[in-house]
Amino acid sequence: MAQASATDTVANIYRTPELWQKITFTFICLVLYRIGSHITAPGIDVLAVTAYFQNQGNGGGILGLYDLFSGGGLSRATVLALGIMPYISASIFVQIAGAVLPQVDKLQKDEEGRKKLTQWTRYATVFLAVVQGWGFGLFTESLPGAVATPGFWFKVQMALFLTTGAMFVMWLGEQITERGLGNGASLIIFFSIVERFWPGIFQTFSFLSSGAIGPLQILVLGVVMLAVVAGVVAITMAARRILIQIPQRTVSRGRMRQEARNFIPLRLNSAGVMPIIFAQSVIVVPSAIAQFSGNENLKTFAEFFAPGTWLYFVLSGVLILFFTYFYTSIIFNPIDLSENLKKQGGFVPGIKPGAKTAEYIDQVVSRITLPGALFLTVIALLPQLIAKWINVPFSFGGTSLLIVVGVALDTMAQMQQHLLLRQYDGFMKKGKVRYRGRQATGGL
What we know:
Helix content is 70%, strand content 7%. It is mainly alpha-helical. It has 2 domains: 178 residues, SecY subunit domain (Preprotein translocase SecY subunit, Orthogonal Bundle), CATH 1.10.3370.10; 176 residues, SecY subunit domain (Preprotein translocase SecY subunit, Orthogonal Bundle), CATH 1.10.3370.10. A hairpin with a 2-residue loop joins β3 and β4.
């Protein structure tokens, strides 16, 4: 039954021209992105950069996080090494500005204002890409034998190539969002992470065949990964539903009044993966400062925060908890929600509309954010702790699994919406309405 249902779903997708065109367009854009992610930037010895990433490991650093989201483009020193991250960072800055600055918040509520904010986001993306491209040039120059002709013009060249690549990726993401299926930026990160799963699987079997790890370690690691995936699916779909009632008009001779009941779903993990990204970005600041300064005292101090140390795990947990509450407060505004509910005439049973409703919703969000924050902390740190405990020569992060599962569920939901809309359209087109013995038509 399940197999037949899956077959029918695939057949329905193929029989829906609009959905099939969106899927095809999205696939072509992603293929172009993956091709560009293997074109090496000029003037760099790729083997030297790759050797650095292999020796240092990329489990907890900001460079490893960028390399993860770019599908290995950073470690291969490609023209798309920055990936979609400058655009995501610029979008986050604009989103935070909307929560802090009333002028930006006003622009977010207007159609023309949103177009202006989109332009600002693109300009900010260019600025961040130039800075990060210049920084990548400095980084590669610090690696022995990585750059043949270091100097000012090399850094200008890197900033130019990587900024152009970042703008191309941003354009691809916008095209997927507008003409394809799903969110373009999320799908680009999704396929960048998925592409790296296969080399990791082959590496695992090579370690197993060479005796570096045993079957029991593989079994424990596999159980942990399955548990993480199941937990991600459960928490991603989990929501606290708040009952609301919206009065309807009188329906029977002026005497009967109905009330429509509905729910406001408040997700337990409304912050998504952003708290983990923020926390990892902050915790690598000491090591980044020490690396660029060359001060031995700072390097000794930064070793206390190195991935795998107890201070790293404690500080990461605290930062994830903090940023979960911080980011949730930015993206979720209970005052606006209560005002929109009041304009529709709706109310929460037992709660006075307006300020009291906003306070109630804020209390509920604060309570459900705690288990969501604890879940993110466990997802981010448990795989690393397990990998260190069983002493495997590689590590996997819950961050990538969280992103992959979240994007997959969101994309599947959008596909289901397209199929459902197609069914309604087919029903309206095929349906026959007869009036006074004749079939009604769309014309007069």
